[in-house]
Every structure is written in structure tokens, then in C-alpha cells.
Design goal:
The chain is of the alpha+beta class and 115 residues long. The protein is 25% helix and 32% strand. β2 and β3 form a beta hairpin. The radius of gyration is 17 Å and the shape is globular.
Length: 115
């Protein structure tokens, strides 16, 4: 049993796992909520509009979290502070500059206000 466990640990440690996380940091210059409840931002990490979430909770992020993210975004704009977003990249190919735009963008795992 112990040998099986050691072999499993070895296999998992040397296997090529393509899933990774990326962190995108920058300032938000514009933010809006459209008629479809999308919270859309223009961030310097992408230089294109991307959706963070939907305020009705229909895109995988609940409505309370989305509203709080909007608060973080507006705080960052008012006080000229950076935000840090973390995205899960299951393919291992995404970069901050290649995140799809508008509603094609994946949801970030979190939105952080940076001091």
C-alpha cells in the first residue's frame, strides 16, 4: 500500500499539468453595467473591455459578490489604486493581454484592491 502511495505521488509530481492561474494587475479606467446586467471594465492589463460578472448572478458569480466587485472597481477608479484579478487558465495558454473581450471573458476567481 505504501509503495502504491509513493508511486502515485511520483506520477502526479512529474505529470504535465496544463492548468495554471494567471494574475492580472492594473488600473481600471472605465466601468459600466449594461442592460444585460454585465459588469464590464476597461483595465490596463487587457486594454480592452472585459466582463467580470453579471449582477443577476447568472454567469457563475453570485449577485452579492458581483456587486462587491463593482464596489472594488469604483473604489480603485476614485482613489487611483490598482486591482489584481486572478483567472484560472485550464489550457495553460491565456495571458492577461489575451483574455477575451466583453461577455466572452471568463470570470475571474477574485478581484483584489491593491494598496
Amino acid at each position: 500500500m505504501r509503495l502504491l502511495f509513493i508511486c502515485l505521488v511520483f506520477i502526479l509530481s512529474v505529470s504535465d499539468v496544463s492548468a495554471a492561474n494567471i494574475w492580472c494587475r492594473g488600473t481600471v479606467t472605465n466601468a459600466y453595467i449594461d442592460a444585460g446586467n454585465n459588469l464590464i471594465v476597461l483595465g490596463t492589463w487587457r486594454n480592452g473591455y472585459t466582463r467580470l460578472c453579471k449582477t443577476d448572478g447568472s454567469a457563475g458569480i453570485n449577485s452579492v459578490t458581483c456587486s462587491l466587485w463593482f464596489s472594488i472597481v469604483t473604489t480603485s477608479m476614485v482613489h487611483e489604486k490598482e486591482v489584481l484579478l486572478m483567472y484560472s487558465d485550464n489550457n495553460g495558454t491565456m495571458t492577461c493581454g489575451s483574455i477575451p473581450t466583453y461577455s466572452s471573458a471568463p470570470n475571474p476567481a477574485y478581484v483584489m484592491l491593491v494598496k
